[in-house]
Design a protein that fits this description.
Layout (H helix, E strand, L loop, with lengths): L6 H14 L11 H39 L5 H10 L6 H10 L1 H11 L1
Length: 114
């Protein structure tokens, strides 16, 4: 009896990985062994960096709030302490947007907490 190989499934597996490798540089896009490793590494980075992105955005918001608050003589920590004490329920994302794009509204928040 001849040897039976499930070529359909193995080809589909390879095609799936090579499709994910589309756009990679050099042999990473078309050589199976290289593409498999690169795709695996890329998916690992993608998983990790979905978490890192949240950290980076929070850091960016803090910088923007700090820059906005310092225009009115407050540091970031003083400003946030007063925001919490005044029970103003605006998160950092919203405060950063106000500081960047709506300075009048941010000034109103600062005046409310002073």
């Amino acid at each position: 009896m001849p040897r039976s190989v499930n070529h359909v499934a193995s080809r589909a597996r390879r095609k799936k990985v090579l499709k994910l490798a589309k756009g990679f540089w050099g042999r990473g896009k078309n050589v199976w062994t290289v593409a498999k490793n690169k795709v695996e590494k890329g998916l690992t980075y993608a998983y990790r960096d979905r978490k890192v992105k949240k950290r980076e955005f929070r850091s960016l918001w803090i910088m923007r709030i700090n820059a906005g608050a310092r225009q009115y003589g407050l540091s970031y920590s003083q400003f946030m302490g007063k925001v919490h004490k005044a029970e103003i329920n605006l998160n950092r994302k919203v405060l950063a947007d106000l500081a960047m794009n709506h300075p009048d509204a941010f000034k109103a928040v600062v005046d409310a907490v002073k």
